[in-house]
Amino acid sequence: MKNKKFCFAFLLMLVFSAAMAQTHVSSPYTRFGLGDLLNNKYIRNTSMGGISFGYRNPTSVNYSNPASYTAFDTLSFVFETGLNSNFMQLESSTEKHLTNYTSLSYLVFGFPVTKWWGASIGLLPYSNVGYDILHEDTLDNIGTTDYTYEGNGGLNQFYFGNAFRIKNLSIGFNASYIFGSLNKLGTVSFPDSIYFLSTKIVNSTRVNDLFLNYGMQYQKNISKNVKMVTGFVYNANANLNAKQDLLIYRFLPSNDGAEDVVDTIIYSEGSKGTITIPQSIGAGVTFGINNKLLMGADYQFQNWKKFKSFGESDSLLNSMQASFGLEYIPNLNSLTQKWKHARYRFGLRYNETYLQLHNTQLNETAVSFGIGIPMKRSKSTLNLGFELGQRGTTDNNLIRERFAKVVFSLSVHEYWFIKRRFD
């Protein structure tokens, strides 16, 4: 029976890997840096503003702080997968555009090794790229000039993490394998003239490398009914190995939309280089009160000014995120009324992103809420969450993104290591 469960879990991971490769986003801001960075918060954490550094729960996996893996029950196995739907309104000073997409969020497993050693393994996205931008301009002696920018792809990560507990102190690490491709295309064309050749730039960057991040948590009982957990995380500076294909050519567009290539300006395949993901640090604290209320706050900073891709810097700024969230359980011991031992969640977050355009740093704010519904005769839960927010502004010819996210996850908590006396 155990072998069947492991085979099923492995099959799910393969299916999930294929599904992630087909994820589509639509945001002009994913053109910069590594695209739209995923915050790696699980759905129950998303419903609480994303707090996670001081979060410990034996029935869920908290990748954001690997020290939390020591919270798993010594006889349990935790499996969690999620789905999210994103609805977005892109708004400029003159027009609006609606877009939406749905994708799988993550597939993770957590399990104990000993009483003082916990582990986790999983697959989740790191960043997404998806945009299609057309900018028209009129140049003297040339006429209309079209600039087209397209991009797709993203990075994923497969990780294996371990945590070790010494009394009230837990320390842990994740070893992650980052893989994926970032595909970007730019075209300059002249629809009013047959005397100017159009130019196209096709750039594809493939990333495959390892990096580490570390975490620590400390638990303390402040009183009989109040427990405090403080957490710290550190992501080391990572120079990821990458390969780049670059093609620049000139062409004449035909009436049927095809391209008649005239000449190739640059062609290179498999050029080796590195992408530098700068270090980050974060801290958080949670307070659990009488098994009814959990509340906490997080803060994270990342030095994106140090970002480089194949030796070139981007116009990125340092980023920060502050989060606050809470979870309320009316009656954890209620056996007859399901909604009294459901988990009700609420959160807020504020993020100064790494994007700076037209001398304006883009900020993001969001409010979130959700519920965790327990399943019968089990510690497994169904989690449903919502997040409403916006990023950017319409000032300085920028675009404001207003978004609504609907997230759903299944957290399965099983006892796998108990020897049955009767079948």
How would the blueprint of this fold be written?
Blueprint: H1 2-20, E1 36-37, H2 43-46, E2 76-91, E3 96-114, E4 117-139, E5 143-166, E6 169-189, E7 198-221, E8 226-235, E9 238-253, E10 259-277, E11 280-289, E12 293-302, E13 308-309, E14 312-313, E15 319-328, E16 343-357, E17 360-374, E18 381-391, E19 400-415
Antiparallel strand pairs: 1-4, 2-3, 2-19, 3-4, 4-5, 5-6, 6-7, 7-8, 7-9, 8-11, 9-10, 10-13, 11-12, 12-15, 13-14, 15-16, 16-17, 17-18, 18-19
For the structure shown, list the relevant keywords:
423 residues, 14-stranded antiparallel β-barrel, mainly beta, 5% helix, 2 helices, single chain
Task: Provide a descriptive summary of the structure in words.
The protein is mainly beta and 423 residues long. Helix content is 5%, strand content 63%. It is built from 2 helices and 19 strands. The protein has helices spanning 2-20, 43-46; strands at residues 36-37, 76-91, 96-114, 117-139, 143-166, 169-189, 198-221, 226-235, 238-253, 259-277, 280-289, 293-302, 308-309, 312-313, 319-328, 343-357, 360-374, 381-391, 400-415. It has a 14-stranded antiparallel barrel with strand order 2-3-4-5-6-7-8-11-12-15-16-17-18-19. A hairpin with a 4-residue loop joins strand 2 and strand 3 (96-114). Mean pLDDT is 87; it is low at 1-7.
- Broad shape: elongated
Q: How many helices?
A: 2
Q: Fraction of residues in helices?
A: under 10%
H/E element order: HEHEEEEEEEEEEEEEEEEEE
What is the total tally of β strands?
19
Q: How does the major sheet shape up?
A: 14 strands, antiparallel, barrel
Strand order of the largest sheet: 2-3-4-5-6-7-8-11-12-15-16-17-18-19
Q: How far do the termini sit from each other?
A: 12 Å
Fraction of residues in β-strands: over 45%
Evaluate the radius of gyration: 24 Å
What structural category characterises the helix and strand content?
A: mainly beta
Which regions have little confidence, pLDDT < 50, spanning 5+ residues?
Answer: 1-7
- Mean pLDDT score, rounded? 87
